[in-house]
Amino acid sequence: MNLANVLTIIGFVFFAVIFLICLVIVIYLYIVDRTQKQHPILRNYPVIGRARYFLEQIGPELRQYFFNNDNEGKPFSRKDYQHIVKKAKYKRDVIGFGSQRDFEEQGFYIRNSMFPKLTEELKMDQDTKVTTNRYLLLKDPLFTQKKEELEKHESSAYLLEDEDAIVIGKDTKYPFIVKGQIGMSAMSYGSLGDRAITALSEGLGIAKGTWMNSGEGGISDYHLKGGVDIIMQIGPGLFGVRDKQGNFSWEALSEKSKIPQVKAFEIKLAQGAKTRGGHIDGEKVTEEIARIRMVEPFKSIDSPNRFREFSDLPSLFDFIERIRDHTGKPVGMKVVIGSHHEADELARIMKETGKGPDFITVDGGEGGTGASYQELADSVGLPIKSALPLVNNALMKHGVRDRVKIIASGKLFSPDRIAIALAMGADLVNIARGFMITVGCIQALKCESNACPVGVATTDPELQKALVIDEKKYRTANYLITMRKGLFRLAAAAGLDSPVHFNREHIVYKNEKGEVWPLEDLYQTIVYKGS
Questions:
Q1: Phi and psi of 509, rounded to 5°?
Q2: Residue 265 pLDDT level (bands cut at 50, 70, 90)
Q3: Disulfide-capable partner of 410 in 70, 78, 194, 384 (CB 3.0 to 4.6 Å)?
Q4: Apex 474 CA angle, 214 and 441, nearest 5
Q5: 251, exposed or middle or buried, with CB in 10 Å at 0-12, 13-18, 19+?
Q6: Which pLDDT value is given to residue 361?
Q7: What angle do CA 314, 368, 519 make, to 5 degrees?
Q8: Which residues are listed as membrane-spanning (predicted)?
Q9: Helix, strand or coil for residue 148?
Q10: Which has the closest alpha carbon to 484: 421, 401, 414, 404?
Q11: Residues with Cβ < 8 Å from 299, sequence gap 6 or more?
């Protein structure tokens, strides 16, 4: 028997075995599907019906990468996502050919000046420089991998001048002074893994002039690694400032206040995507996280809906006063606004009592979360462009606006969105998901599952191996620096020498008919309807 015949027989036997194995699997699945009681489709269409569940499982990926156009995806479109990545990876933010915005739709626009400011006329810290790593795109062929080169790049930090620096808690013993108007919103260790928190901390530290909100999970060593300023958030669960019985601990608060990087405290009443206490699934609660939060490991954590320490605004303000006196540092509050009445009551009681926060973080309903419930995320709390004017107006109406700084958050991931928020009354802005994208988030929408495929929103050690801190930290820095640069660019276009001067007169609103209203007129409408 020659070699060709031997190979033919071997090949026939091989394929026969493969066929028999497949046949046995199909028969087994047929029997299982026909007899199971959970899925009607599989009972009627055994084996073939499995294709339906397979396609359903990969549906989000198919829509994200193939079927949604560049402007359709939620919560962030492909265009939005790519703009963030481009800033972070290449430290560039230019586009070609033209905008993809639908100019027929209603929306806000920044009013340009016929005589914009020259670069040398901008009031900007010219001395502070930062060095990061960025990629240069050399070739982008269709069928082979991109050719990119990593280079060191020095640039301005694009910080405010000293005289324009934002001072939070000017009357406290230790005021918090910031020279950049963009910081990181609350993201807890536990919601994100240690590598993600470390990369963000180190990246923000490289960029300078910013802050990192700890989230309600308490301060970890990973928050401190980058040397960045920290706002410590205190949620209803009191993680990081509680005793073993779960009661508020003034001793623990003192310990945290002695950390040099901790510049302020924030009392979290609510979050845009969840107007309730936080939630973290048990599989994310490692022994280290449990130690930091003083809870049991590997058990789900649900914070109470509100603090037990206070039940109304006067008692909240008393609690804020005690923390401020105890630590000497600024104390703020994070809120979600649901109506004009709430904003007005907040400002009125600040006026009547002479007490209140040093800053108010206004979180819009469009904000993100590691875990929430659909009905809360979709329908509870106003979005930022509605909530922010209500708060700012109420504070001005009662004459207490100069006592408090406003931090806005809610999908403010680009310089134009930030400029509009500043004009609506914000002094500073927080960003969360934009920074998540800089360290590798692909918007897989699995933050609550501990199965984040890129190692960002997970505490699984194996999945976290995907995240390389020494590479991602520079992307975080690049994104922030490029955002601040864009904000100065917009200020110049509006005829301003600094973005701190954005106000109502610099924004107009256009409806679907092309009719235009100054933001000032919209404010008057808000005041009138709310009175």
A1: -120, 130
A2: very high
A3: 384
A4: 65
A5: exposed
A6: 96
A7: 70
A8: 6-31
A9: strand
A10: 414
A11: 282, 285
Closest-CA residue to 429 (of 210, 170, 128, 265): 210
- Residues paired with 332 in a beta bridge: 266, 359
Convert the pLDDT of each residue in 436-468 to its tens digit: 999 999 888 888 788 888 999 998 899 999 999
- How many of the other CB atoms lie within 10 Å of CB of 117? 18
Domains identified in the chain and CATH numbers: 1-67 (no CATH), 154-502 (3.20.20.70)
The answer on pLDDT for 224 being more than 70 is: yes
- C-beta separation of 344 from 352 below 8 A: no
CB 358 within 8 A of CB 331: yes
Q: How many residues does the chain have?
A: 531
User: Cβ-count burial of 338 within 10 angstroms (0-12 exposed, 13-18 middle, 19+ buried)?
Assistant: middle
Helices and strands counted in the chain (H then E): 18, 17
CB-CB contact of 429 with 359 (8 Å):
no
Cα-Cα end-to-end distance for the chain: 100
Question: What is the C-alpha separation between 250 and 319, in angstroms, rounded?
Answer: 12
Of 194, 319, 208, 312, nearest in space to 266 by CA: 319
Tell me the three-class secondary structure of 416-452, residue by residue.
HHHHHHHHCCCCEEEECHHHHHHCCCCCCCCHHHCCC
Average pLDDT over residues 366-383: 72
CA distance 213 to 476: 15
| pLDDT for the residue numbered 275 | 63
Token pair 């969105």 is found at 417
In this structure, are strands 279-280 and 262-268 parallel, antiparallel, or unpaired? unpaired
Q: Where are the beta strands (DSSP E) in 256-346?
A: 262-268, 279-280, 301-302, 331-335
Q: Provide the strand spans (E) within 98-188.
A: 107-110, 129-139, 147-156, 166-168, 176-178, 182-184
Q: Hey, what are 47's tokens?
A: 């084996």
Q: Are 237 and 303 in contact (CB under 8 A)?
A: yes
Q: What is the pLDDT of residue 140?
A: 80
Task: Specify the amino acid at residue 522.
Answer: L
d(CA 205, CA 513): 46
Q: Which residues pair with 518 in a beta bridge?
A: 508
Give CB contacts under 8 A, 24+ apart, made by 467-471: 467/193, 467/195, 467/196, 467/199, 467/439, 467/440, 469/195, 469/198, 469/199, 469/202, 471/133
- Tell me the C-alpha to C-alpha distance, in Å, between residue 384 and each of 229, 279, 377, 421: 25, 23, 14, 8
- CA–CA gap between residue 239 and residue 243 (Å, rounded): 9
472, 233 contact by CB (below 8 A)? no
Cα separation, 312 vs 10, whole angstroms:
81
**Distance in angstroms (rounded) separating the CA atoms of residues 242 and 295:** 10
What is the chain's Cα-based Rg?
26
